[in-house]
Design brief:
2-enoyl-CoA Hydratase, Chain A, domain 1, 4-stranded mixed beta sheet, globular, 2 domains, alpha/beta, single chain
Length: 253
């Protein structure tokens, strides 16, 4: 399938969605978000896909919103755009299959927020993360006001959002913003290796676990523990249960 603003590839249980506007450092316009949405729908409907990787073409993950795209836009039109952007962000945050951001180069603004929406972040050591919104009299979206705090704590989140400072991949790893920072030339190998590990496990189990993790900050501990019981019962009743137990027994041998 061909897209205007992304490259969409599928290989051995993993989908790769590559932002593809390198001439503008993968700045995000309306068409790019529409392309993302369509590729995600395809990945969700494809039973062979067990994990999704997001990355960028060229020397950036994404430098955020394409300001040319918003030039002359009315407040009503801008609201509609933001509502749509938030809906796609919700889809990514709640996506049933694991998502990995392989962050190359700049991840700013909406690009930064896309990486926050993913389950796992692997960054090139030279990557640059930042939220410059306050510099240009704007504000963050994509759930960043909560997602960033969940990762680095409220104090550090406020520091990063208030100062608009950029940090590199190594610093992002140090503060817990990314799972790990790796040499630039090994980024995709590392992301694919992690995706392959995930793809070998039960997609049904991971779906239920991810749902519970997302619920954990929204419901009481009692409600969460009740959900854990039902999730566990659902997995042990699943057709793939016996197959996975047999695979595990063979590995132990």
């Amino acid at each position: 399938m061909s897209y205007e603003c992304i490259i969409y590839e599928k290989r051995e249980g993993v989908a790769i969605i590559k932002l593809n506007r390198p001439k503008v450092l993968n700045a995000m316009n309306k068409q790019l978000w529409l392309d993302l949405q369509d590729a995600l729908e395809d990945s969700l409907g494809n039973g062979a896909i067990k994990a999704v990787i997001f990355t960028g073409e060229g020397r950036a993950f994404s430098t955020g919103a394409d300001l040319k795209d918003s030039k002359g836009r009315s407040l009503t039109a801008y609201r509609d755009y933001l509502v749509h952007l938030q809906e796609i962000s919700r889809v990514i945050i709640r996506f049933p299959k694991p998502t990995i951001a392989a962050v190359n180069g700049y991840a700013l603004g909406s690009g930064y927020e896309l990486s926050l929406a993913c389950d796992i972040r692997i960054a090139a050591e030279s990557a640059k993360f930042g939220s410059p919104e306050a510099r240009v009299s704007s504000s963050v979206t994509g759930g960043a006001m909560r997602l960033l705090q969940d990762l680095v704590g409220p104090g550090k989140a406020k520091e990063l959002l208030f100062t608009c400072d950029y940090i590199d991949g190594k610093e992002a790893e140090r503060i817990g913003l990314v799972n790990k920072a790796v040499p630039d030339d090994t980024l995709m190998d590392e992301a694919l290796e992690m995706a392959d590990k995930i793809a070998k496990n039960s997609a049904f189990s991971i779906n239920l676990i991810k749902k519970g993790l997302n619920m954990a900050t929204e419901v009481s501990l009692e409600a969460l523990m009740d959900y854990e019981v039902e999730a566990c019962l659902a997995t042990v009743s699943a057709p793939e249960r016996l197959d996975k137990l047999e695979e595990f027994a063979q590995r132990k041998k």
